[in-house]
From TrEMBL:
Name assigned to this protein: S1 motif domain-containing protein
Domain of life from the UniProt record: Eukaryota
GO BP annotation list: nucleobase-containing compound metabolic process; translation
GO molecular function annotations of the record: mRNA binding; structural constituent of ribosome
PANTHER family registered for this protein in UniProt: 30S RIBOSOMAL PROTEIN S1, S1 RNA-BINDING DOMAIN-CONTAINING PROTEIN 1
Residues covered by the S1 motif domain: 678-763
Species name: Caenorhabditis brenneri
Amino acid sequence: MWRQLAAQFYALDKPWVLVNTIEYFILKEVEELTIYQVKELIKLLKKGCEASYIARYRDDIHGGLSPQRIRKIIEIYFEVLELNRRVESALRNVIPKVVGVGEKQEVRERLKYCQSVDEVSEIAREYGEGDGKSKAQIAREHGLEAPCRDVLNGKFVDMREFTAHEQHFIHLAADIISKDENVKQAAINLCQLKTKCEILITTHLTEIAKQKLEQKRNGTLDRDEWMKGLSAFSDLVHFKRSAYFIRDYMVSTLNRGEELYIIVWQAEIDSKEAKKFHPFAGREVHPKLKIPFRNWFDYSVKNHFIPTLQLGVKKFLLRRAECRAIELFGQNVERLFCQEGIHDKYVIALDPGWFIKAAFLDPEGNVVSKHVFHFSEESTFNHRAADKLKQWSQYTRDMGKCLVFAIGNGSNTRNTQVAVSKLIQSEQFPEEVEVAFCVVPEHGASKYSITDAAAEEFGKNFDPKMRSAVSIGRRLIDPMSEYVKIDPENLGKGQYQHSNDTKLLHEKRVAVVRDRCSLNGTDVNTASKVLLSNISGLNEELAAAIVDYREKHGRFISRNELKRVPKINEHVFQQCAGFLRVTRPDVSLLKKVPKSMEWNPLDETIVHPEDYALATQLLKDACLTVEDTKTLETILLDPGWYSDKELRIFELLLSKPNLRPPPEMMTEVRNMNDLEVDEIFMGTVTNKTDFALFVDIGVEKDGFVHLSHYLSKVEYENPELTPQEFLQMIEELEIPSVGDQIEVVVERIDNKYDDDSIRIYLKPNQKSN
């Protein structure tokens, strides 16, 4: 992916027009690097090296940066390339529109010193061609610019000569003042909250919200979904907070309320306060022209400066909140991909609904059988469904395996769980078979089931409704392989992710997924095309080529055999080889390959083929084999005897995937109506935001653990903590993440409308945590 982007944005013949270098922009954001390290990293990026490869195999350059920090460098790198492209385009398209040699040079310099794409866009808008004339342009056509500038520069002008143009002067002066470089810089500093000013973020109800509330008061409004939404945002109806201390998740919440037409939020700046920071506030003019200047200045502040600040502050906060939301999404998805699958069990996957779609899967995720189940009464399977489940369980017994039900957490999941629990409790299954069930998030399963990718995977004749059931089951068996297929906004991980830019969300998902797929590694002989396409150095075309080769020639014997796949050149092999494991093939296969393609025990490890000779020698010196390293947690080494690279090889040999346990296995259903305050549960974190954790405790809804439980109330509600200070504070705490299992206590249960609106409030069990 990065290689393709580099080819698109970075060409040797494309001029570098920015005054600042790429190294300057990277060092400004990633202070822990030296200029030498940045230059070397840029060389790797120009070659198309990806974050996971750089993180694992090129720490000799970056000194041990995490994949997240390397991704940050890559993001900056491509942002700067895009900035340079935009400036180069603006120099070609904007400069010809600028009148005057001196002003052309001024605009040219402004463009070359731009620090963001927004600055380039602002300059382009400033000199763009409009369809109509502004009032300031009309004033200029009346020849008023020269006397107007004289007044602003402190000279005397007899305004009696221009009595008929009083309004024209106001509009022209306001335009000149607003375009002054010092004024624009002051506005930028205020919009980006670099200058301390009394800027408040406030809200008010929309007209439709007011109408709904009035109908409710009059008793003419039935309970509906809209009123539930209004209730959810009730705390924001009279919201007021300083822009400097408003936290990112609050901004995301405000934005969501605005998207639902419940509230409108804005930045409020008092006129007197705005004037304090306006560069023209202390402007000296001729004593006889103070009154017209004050009128001009007041008009400019009211109609130009304040609206610019209101829009700019809101835009800045939204962008910052979106960046944080996407960062959180990336962290959560990364944890999601670290979940361990269940092994050596048959799975009955149930997709609940008015009728239940069921798929019976073998331990590898292959479909053995499928069926549609119905209830005979609430929470009880009919006879045909029960008989089919017993038949599948007997098949499982014959195969000598255990059985687990993977039940989707969508609509009607409660009845489905109860029905399965009844069968288990009534001992309807063979006593030799251990049976349990668990709840699996079904986010995006239905949407994926109707995509072209799903049709290609399952075949066009495979019922799309059944595809979602298979997806739910496979998420339990091999979570990473299945979740890579789902669009990022449908994964249910993040902080108001549906309100974020889907393109940015997708890019973050791609980056995180590629890193995690790579760093987890995968068996090249079992990995799907989708999973392979997310490995460092590979894409859909190369993944398809690997699968085609596998289908034609059988399993890969060694990593070196990858070089035989069409289009996998030396560079691609270098990027992907360390992340594709090849398990020991049968002895009969080993005899059929040339020496260059022979299997090496290191093919099962994450040691890169470039380092096989060194790794082999190190193992020999330590009297160890590759098989030994699979069970060892550490090796006692004297750092003085080994180089940094040799120590790193030992780390790779001992490295094991850091996976989270699969969902909790249950035999009985927990009922929300049976929950009691102070009851203790072991739960699994399903989502993490900057304001709460969402925890699955085995009922049909996740519980809500407010983040204030991990801080003192004074710390959490401190109104003078900046967003940066707040984030730093919570990042320093050991707050659980997605996939972690924690013990929680039921704090309270709210039910404002009906079962759909129940919220379970939890708190960490302090005695155990």
